[in-house]
Write a structure and sequence with these properties.
Length: 362
């Protein structure tokens, strides 16, 4: 499901990706469970999606330039140029920019970083070009199964680390991005595109639409999958998986803002994320776990409008409180005994600040 979700989000980016759809499989009338049908990334995919001649394309399958069990010299020469030249020099950068689609490469890097696709970039890398003169390399997104796991994973460090590890990343697989980030023009373009995506495609509201699509489809089928195969082993485990995914999609942009500051030394304008001088300096919920009756204790540095919302594992949001609170301690009582049992996210919005905590209803 993670790969399906990643492909759905990637559809509106400047990256190549596979079309995908969920399916329930029967073989000779026997139920075989939930699957996802994906396009195969090959020369036929390129011909179908880009109108190119399948016999006039080359697909590179790793950073060494491997294609059809041989090393494609044009790509390996590009790699050597990037490795051995200073890309902060404009002429060197423009040489590389004439070889690869910069905006495609930027979106590819940003998307892999955003979804925290942990077994990348050493694995799951493909790029392609036609054999026509002047054709540039384009990167293809595929295999997002290792994404959406760790919301706090700093993928800027992951994508630029120079350590000599073997997996899932090493200096060899990160050379392109690390060297291109030395160029001021590329860095400006990267930063601007990252900022744009955080305010549009990667906004929580947009991502949770895809989440609800996945959740609604699987909720009608997952119990039969459990009964037949024990994978997941129980419906409660399915709920936990979906809650973790929802948490990732809800809070990833704020974690990315922190990682960007820590790793790249810059600032991103991301509404709904906590700032260094927060309005709210104390936020408590009790009792937790709760039977549906609980209280919020909010301490504000100054009076401010406050919205309290409850989000369930389907991404459905219920506003519990929306009013002005005074400076100092404020206690708000809630009675939601009709709620289904499970894990919820209790969120607080005040001005451009966002806070959250988990709330267990028993």
């Amino acid at each position: 499901m993670d790969d399906y979700l990643a492909n759905r989000i990637a559809e509106n980016l400047n990256v190549c990706g596979a079309s995908s759809r969920p399916a329930v499989l029967y073989i000779n009338g026997v139920y075989r469970g939930i699957y996802f049908v994906n396009e195969k990334i090959d020369e036929y995919y390129l011909e179908s999606n880009f109108g190119v001649d399948k016999d006039s394309v080359v697909i590179v399958e790793n950073w060494e330039g491997l294609t059809n069990d041989t090393i494609y010299s044009e790509f390996s020469e590009l790699y050597d140029f990037i490795k051995n030249n200073d890309l902060s020099i404009a002429s060197n950068y423009y040489y590389v920019a004439n070889m690869i689609y910069i905006h495609n490469f930027i979106d590819y890097q940003i998307f892999e970083i955003f979804i925290a696709n942990y077994d990348w970039p050493l694995q799951n890398m493909k790029c392609w070009k036609t054999l026509s003169k002047g054709s540039k390399w384009k990167w293809i997104f595929y295999d997002g199964d290792a994404g959406f796991r760790e919301v706090k994973c700093n993928m800027f460090d992951h994508a630029m680390d120079e350590s000599d590890s073997d997996w899932p990343t090493n200096e060899f697989s990160k050379l392109f991005f690390r060297k291109l980030m030395e160029n001021n023009s590329f860095r400006i373009d990267f930063n601007a595109r990252l900022q744009e995506l955080l305010l549009t495609n990667f906004k929580k509201e947009n991502l949770l639409q895809y989440y609800s699509e996945c959740s609604n489809y699987h909720n009608n089928e997952v119990q039969r999958q459990i009964d037949k195969f024990g994978n997941p082993y129980a419906y409660e485990e399915w709920i936990r998986i979906m809650e973790n995914l929802q948490e990732f999609l809800t809070f990833r942009i704020c974690e990315l803002k922190k990682h960007y500051r820590k790793s790249l030394g810059g600032e991103l304008n991301v509404p709904d994320c906590e700032f260094e001088d927060p309005v709210l300096y104390k936020f408590e919920v009790y009792p937790n776990p709760s039977n549906g009756e609980f209280m919020c204790n909010l301490s504000l540095k100054y009076g401010a409008p406050v919205q309290v919302s409850l989000i369930n594992y389907l991404g459905q949001t219920q506003i519990l409180y929306d009013d002005f609170l005074l400076q100092g301690d404020n206690t708000i009582s809630f009675n939601k005994k009709g709620l289904a049992t499970g894990l919820y996210i209790l969120s607080i919005y005040t001005y451009d600040n966002y806070y959250s905590t988990k709330l267990m209803i028993q």
